Amino acid sequence: MTYISLTKAAQDRIAQTLQPGQFAIDATMGNGHDTLFLAELVGAEGRVFGFDIQQQALANTRQRLADAGIENHATLIQGGHEHMELLLPSRVVGQISAIMFNLGYLPGGDKHTVTRSDTTSAAIDVASRLLAPEGIMTILVYRGHPGGQDEADAISRALDSMSQKGFEIELYTSPGPWFYLAKKSIQT
Ligand code: SAH
After folding, report:
1. Three-class SS of residue 162?
2. In sequence order, which ranges of 19-130 are alpha helices (DSSP H)?
3. Whose CA is nearest to atom 26 of ligand 1?
4. How far is CA 45 from CA 21, 68, 70, 114, in A?
5. 3-class state of residue 181 by DSSP
6. Does ligand 1 have an atom closer than 6 angstroms to the CB of 54?
């Protein structure tokens, strides 16, 4: 797979599987591009749950959804993605069709508030339990910021252990971000 942008690659893979009426998670809202993308795919009958620890990210995402007239497709939650399971309605646990992570810092925001290896690997572990059978998780990993290489190493270990639990893992590298795709098997 040759792509100009691995961000686009992640969205393309989600678009191939996520259907109207399904549940999805944006684990790192940031400026809300992926939340909007997911909200368009799930439609009014589905729901996107967006997470971010920064107020600024919630405000930016809320505005983006409002501009598109689809804020009713999404629930925005200010909280760490490592706590996702506690912050979600219990009926959606194990029923999420797609989960997106786009790590690093908020573009245009505070560059010191970055995703971190301990919370990111905890969140990936939680996300693997939230997924529905055949659900997919996309993870864009950046190694340039302080702690980025540690985070990338922790993610690689987390995905190794998922592959031993029956997830199918794909990895696409670039001089910029790396893109992991994890697919849950039917019987996991
Ligand atoms: N690198 C991407 C954007 C990443 S935004 C790009 O270039 O487009 C990453 C977001 O993750 C930030 O808004 C940050 O606030 C958020 N974040 C950091 N730690 C988090 C956590 N524990 N849980 C949820 N979001 C977190």
Report:
1. helix
2. 33-42, 55-68, 84-87, 117-130
3. 52
4. 4, 16, 12, 33
5. strand
6. yes
Of 138, 126, 130, 133, give the one whose Cα is nearest residue 15.
138
What is the C-alpha to C-alpha distance for residues 151 and 72, in angstroms, rounded to an integer? Answer: 34
Q: Is the pTM of this model over 0.70?
A: yes
Ligand 1 centre to CA of 54 (Å) is 8
Burial of 101 (0-12, 13-18, 19+ CB in 10 A): buried
Cα–Cα distance measured from residue 97 to residue 62, given in angstroms and rounded to the nearest whole number? 22
Residue 174 DSSP symbol: -
Q: What CA–CA distances, in Å, run from 92 to 34, 101, 129, 146? A: 20, 18, 11, 35
Domain 3-183 annotated CATH 3.30.420.40: no
* Residue 173 Cα to ligand 1 middle (Å): 20
pLDDT in tens, 29-84: 999 999 999 999 999 999 999 999 999 999 999 999 999 999 999 999 999 999 99
